[in-house]
Amino acid sequence: MTPAISCDPSRRAFCATLCALAAAAALPGNAQAPVPAEPVPDPQPLKLTEVTRADLVPGKVLDFRKRGAFYLAADDRGIFALTAVCTHRGCLVLSEGPTGFGCPCHDSAYTLQGEVTEGPAKLPLRHLEVKAIGPTGLLQVDVSTTVPPETRL
């Protein structure tokens, strides 16, 4: 008859093993920074709005965060679209009217044109392509196409 082997460690041995594993995991070189997930491309990047050029006067900002995470805005040079996604951590920025945009997550601030006025964000908001479509002139925004910041309709 063979003697029974006990697999029931004492509480002290269990705690010592657990502490050793935790200490080994905390050593430099063992920790890996999480890999940021690639944003999933929008399967329908063209967003047709119910807005025409006549609806947008300088200083007006229209919120399309629920429709495609963007804003339509107008300044003295014309109509433009900006992404509503903060360049710091990807939160949705909130419109502050004609003064610009603010991120509720980490307090980044942007001008109406999308330029950073307060960090931690370092990059401006992306400008998106805007076109007037058809005889009615409804505005269409392509959320997959970045245009230069000076581009206006």
Brief rundown of the structure:
The protein has 153 residues and is of the alpha+beta class.
Q: What does this molecule look like?
A:
The protein has helices at residues 11-26, 65-68, and strands spanning 46-48, 61-64, 70-75, 78-83, 94-95, 101-102, 109-110, 116-118, 127-133, 138-147. With 153 residues, it is α+β, with helices and mostly antiparallel strands. The radius of gyration is 26 Å and the shape is elongated. The chain is built from 2 helices and 10 strands, in the order αββαββββββββ. A hairpin with a 5-residue loop joins strand 7 (109-110) and strand 8 (116-118). The chain has a 6-stranded antiparallel sheet with strand order 1-10-9-4-3-2. Strands 5-6-7-8 form a 4-stranded antiparallel sheet, with no helix packed on it.
Q: What key attributes describe this structure?
A:
153 residues; alpha+beta; 6-stranded antiparallel sheet; 29% strand
Q: Major sheet: size, sense and barrel closure?
A: 6 strands, antiparallel
Shape: elongated
Helical residues, percent: 10-25%
DSSP summary: helix tally:
2
What is the alpha-carbon Rg in Å?
A: 26 Å
CA-to-CA gap between the ends? 90 Å
Uncertain stretches of 5 or more adjacent residues: none
Q: What spatial order of strands do you see in the largest sheet?
A: 1-10-9-4-3-2
Count of DSSP E strands? 10
Strand residue content? 25-35%
Order of helices and strands: HEEHEEEEEEEE
Structural class of the helices, strands and pairings? alpha+beta
Mean pLDDT: 83
